[in-house]
Amino acid sequence: MNKILAKRYARALLSLGVEDGRYRSYLEQLENFLAALNEAGNSREVLSSPVYPRKLRADMLVKIIEASGLDEVATNFLKLLHDRDRFSLLGVTVESLRELIDERDGLLRGVLTTASPLKAGELLAIEGALGTMTGRKVELSVKQDPAIIGGLVARLGDLVVDSSLRTQLDKIGRHLTA
Hints:
Helix content is about 60%, strand content about 15%. The protein has eight helices and four strands.
């Protein structure tokens, strides 16, 4: 339910951003605000919890917004979440907004797991090949996991391309025991 509600807020903000051409700016501002909030200790908990008086939460939000230097739309959006007691949805809303913007821009984000570090240019070549395969621009974050022995595993949403040596050895083992 929270994810659905957060996605509605994200769609509304994206719609405003598309109208004025600043949707990427809104995402960046909210991501920076969220990062600052996470670094500020228990501020996020205080702002999200109805246990604390509404006035205290509102004053705290205003101070954090002023320190963050957000524009009017981002400020009003945060105040709206607070006024409707939905501030706890901020993280999920920012995540949903990022997904909607990626979808709008034709970007597919994923994770590439390798056994060893990639050589120069290999990441771009892999992103290009996956982009050709999916018909979208692909952006991968890379992590290393020696357990896959060799090869790579690319995860792009529901799509998994697994050419790891470990998977190949597992397949061979299953065929030999069958």
